[in-house]
Amino acid sequence: MLELIPSFVTILFGVGALGLALRGYVRREQGLIVGAFALHLFAALAQVFITRDYYGYGDMLSFFRHGGVVADGMREDFWAFAPDAVALLFQQQTIHFGWLDESSPATATMYGIGSWLNYLTQGSLYAACLLVAIGSFFGKLAMFRAFRSLFPEHLHQRMIVGMMWMPSTVFWSCGILKESIAMIGLGAATYGLVRLTDTSSSTLRASLALGVGAVIMGLVKTYILGPFAIAAGAWYYWQRGLRLSGGQALTLRPFHFVVAMALAMGVVIGIGQIFPRYALDNLVEEANHLQEVGQRVTGDSTYALTSTAPTSAAGQLALAPLALITALARPFIFEANNIMALISALEMSFVLGLLLLALYRRGARESWQVIMRSPPLVFALIFVLLFALGVGLTTTNMGTLSRYRIPMMPFYMMLLFALLPMRAPRQPVRLRRQRFSARP
């Protein structure tokens, strides 16, 4: 009963918010959105059952239980202990919980989030995960809402499926985990970024959404900000270039290119100043350290890109092709050794099949041209490639790979579905080109 009432109230809150959010969508879109909402609720319940009742351990339990100590203090004297919960959120020193201050910055933030979730849900882990799942769902819905007007109507249903229905993206974003919170921030930041590119939208509201989203990502998953900033700079450059050229093939415009790259690099350098671990000169060292740790830890799901971890930037870049394949396509079916790995392998087989089908139907050249004519697709391509490179280089476990890459999956699926024609060509791509070239 202690779990049931807070969970029921949380679901009612989510359903009410969903009812308001469905306005403005056509009936077929509404059905898919409601289905995605239900999937997120189910995934939240599954997270609790698998993590607490089956395995009995996990990051989620640690965040919630440690946060529960602070929440218990707030229930006794809210004004005395609430500042500690806020301090943990923003990675500052607490007054009463010095032992929590010794954790890593992102973990401290998760303890702070766990404390507020524990306090608001009266200690119900089910209700807390449901609340996170609802927030993650609306983060993804914000992404779709932002991109919706930039793509043809026939792609809208595909985009909902790609952004909000993929199993790994849903499951790993519905627990008290860093990735779940990051998805909320990524959704807000993406919404703000897209709205800033629209001159008819409110600049203040868009800037606020972008800023809040960036802060959330910076607190829990700082490394998302780098690819996001670079991809945003590319969007600015492509949009300005296409606008000035009347939608024709993009030519190099030095001024806008310099502005875009300066903005992107300014953000990247700023990230390094605020979070030294992700400074440019520390990235190679960090990748090397994570690879060495992965090589020392052995298990059924572990893997290594190479027998020795490279210590130079050139050595890390040499692993880039393998890292990209790993993040964009693995695990393969034959690598699955348990039910969770099998589900992930089936999902990535579907994704890889979509990629190959899109390339077959359009051809590599036409696919490239489609991307180059669309600033949102340029943004998605750059973000996915940079993020996949980072995840592929630093992850050494198939289970965590599926979890760590979820921030890129909505953009990856949007890119693939945008490239996939509605109908298969009547003739193979190569034959059509040959006949076209043979015309007088």
TrEMBL record:
Keywords: Membrane, Transmembrane, Transmembrane helix. It comes from the Bacteria. Coiled coil: none annotated. The chain crosses the membrane at residues 6-25, 32-50, 125-147, 168-194, 214-238, 250-275, 339-360, 372-394, 406-424. This is Glycosyltransferase RgtA/B/C/D-like domain-containing protein. It comes from Lujinxingia vulgaris.
